[in-house]
Design brief:
The protein has 252 residues and is α/β, with parallel strands linked by helices. The chain has helices at 5-14, 31-43, 61-71, 104-121, 140-145, 155-167, 187-194, 210-219, 228-232, 236-246, and strands at residues 19-24, 48-51, 76-78, 92-98, 124-132, 172-176, 201-204, 223-226. Helix 2 packs parallel to helix 3, helix 7 (187-194) packs parallel to helix 8 and helix 8 runs parallel beside helix 10.
Length: 252
């Protein structure tokens, strides 16, 4: 049996190798544009594909996953916005619990509904504590979840939330400012959260330039997720990947 995807997250973290995940929203791609993104990702040595969105109304999820799997060996991880966003063709699933909110449906309710299908899918399941951070603008996820994000200047709330998620058994912590955020998560908040947990830390939302991606990694993020900026300019993949991988600590 080969190495699990979670094991690769864990090993890369402890080797201080930073990872780059390209986020693909099935509602915003077609077969042609997806082919271009995969080609750029291969050239740039992207580490993971995250596929999903807050709504996903196009019914292109399965086809998008299958196309990526046919064209490359980069692991495909589902980043679902609802229990219906499950594809048996993916490699793994971020099983998200919205620990930053107080909506019971997104803490456990939808998991109960989705559990039989998830179990049957044979996907690698990665329990993930999902934390929405205020990015300076209303986001789809905050609207759909009916939950207030953590204020961007309340580091102590973010730290305690992440610690609670880890102690409850979450294997990943994902801090997200949301698609199209005006303000990305601050390096200071990332640093304090990273210093308070042992599990890998994923950071996304509002990262629009390579310098910000680099600084987030240096602050303690283990995986950087970029979607919206790449949707607008796919050529950014190469620069983002170079910046993220350049931030890794090189062990002699």
């Amino acid at each position: 049996m080969g190495k699990s995807i979670y094991q690769s997250f864990w090993e890369r973290k402890h080797q201080q190798k930073k990872s780059f995940a390209v986020l693909i929203d099935p509602d915003k791609v077609n077969a042609h544009s997806l082919k271009d993104v995969v080609s750029l990702a291969l050239d740039a040595s992207v580490d993971y594909f995250f596929i999903g969105g807050s709504l996903v109304v196009s019914h292109f999820l399965d086809e998008a996953v299958k196309q990526v799997k046919q064209e490359c060996d980069i692991p495909v991880i589902l980043f679902p916005g609802s229990p219906s966003q499950i594809s048996q063709y993916a490699d793994a699933l971020l099983y998200l619990s919205l620990i930053s909110g107080r909506n019971p449906e997104l803490l456990i309710g939808q998991h109960v509904i989705s559990a039989p299908a998830v179990k049957k899918s044979r996907l690698e399941i990665m329990p993930t504590g999902y934390m929405v951070i205020d990015g300076g603008a209303p986001t789809t996820v905050s609207y759909i979840s009916n939950a207030s994000p953590i204020p961007s200047d309340k580091n102590e709330i973010a730290v305690c939330t992440a610690m609670a998620g880890e102690m409850l058994g979450m294997k990943l912590i994902y801090m997200d400012a949301g698609s199209g955020a005006r303000k990305p998560i601050t390096e200071n908040m990332i640093s304090e959260v990273a210093g308070s947990i042992e599990v890998p830390l994923i950071v996304g939302g509002g990262i629009t330039d390579p310098e910000k991606a680099y600084l987030n990694c240096k602050s303690g993020a283990d995986v950087i997720v970029i979607g919206n900026a790449i949707e607008k300019d796919p050529s950014l993949i190469r620069e983002m990947s170079a910046a993220i991988h350049a931030s890794s600590v090189r062990v002699p």
